Amino acid sequence: MVLRLLMRKLRKQQLVLSDYLTMLAILIVLARSIIGTVITLWGDNNYHNPENFTATEIYQREVGSKLTVANRMLYKVYLWIQKSVILLLYSCIFACLPLAVRIIKFFWVVLLVTFCAVQATTFVDCHPARLFWQVVPNPG
């Protein structure tokens, strides 16, 4: 992704929408790396020691669990950004074919609908939502 942006810069080409989406994808990858590090260091509510937790451990695991949910959402955003970049590429390649343009527009709608559905499944998974990060008692 970085190489793509560097090549645009070296060739003195203007940035287009797919380049900005690529920059956003890079930021999301960096954010996921930072979040993953915090989750690894602090843990989440999936790992339970047989001993009692201190208040600090409970706090850290709750934060880790909340970050896990955020990390899942960011990963899905990252995937759909990459799919959008591919659709933009197809739009450029097939811009002169009327049928292809209509098909690509249809797939933009499909991409939006599937993105909303996939993000919704993150929260449908567990009810009530606070159980995502509950540490004590074990939410099961």
From TrEMBL:
Q: One GO cellular component term, please give it.
A: membrane
Tell me the membrane topology, using the record's own terms. Multi-pass membrane protein
Q: What is this protein called?
A: Rhodopsin domain-containing protein
Q: What is the top-level taxon of the source organism? A: Eukaryota
Record keywords: Membrane, Transmembrane, Transmembrane helix
Under the heading InterPro entries, the entry gives: Rhodopsin_dom_fungi, SAT4-like
Pfam families named in the record: Fung_rhodopsin
- Supply the source organism for this entry: Penicillium canariense
Which residues are listed as membrane-spanning?
20-42, 77-99, 106-124
